[in-house]
Amino acid sequence: MTNIKFADDDTRSFFESHDITSVCTGSDSLFLGSRDGYVRIVGASWKVVRSFQAHDAGSITHMRQVEGTSLLVTVAVRNTLRGHHKIWAAAPKHSDPRLMRSCYL
After folding, report:
1. Of 15, 39, 41, 98, which is least packed with CB atoms within 10 Å of its CB?
2. Where is pLDDT greater, at 80 or 87?
C-alpha cells in the first residue's frame, strides 16, 4: 500500500474530514460527492481542480459519469425518501457544469 501525496492542504483536509458521501470516476478525474451537496473534482495530481454546488440540500448519495459522454448524474436525498436526481453537462475548464435536467423520484 502506498500513501497518497496530496497536492495541497485543502485537498488533504477534505479527504480527512469524513464528509465524502459518494465517489465515481471518469474523464481522468475522481468525482467526490459530499454532505454539503458539493461535487469536488480531483485531478491526477490529487488536487481538487474544481468544485460546484450540485444540490442545495441533502447529501449526495449517488453519482455516475455516463460512459462515453460528458454527463454526470447526481442524486441527493433530503429528509424524505425521494431522491433529487440531476444531470450535469461538463463545461469548459474554468466554469461550473451546466444543469441539463432535474427531477424527483
Report:
1. 98
2. 87
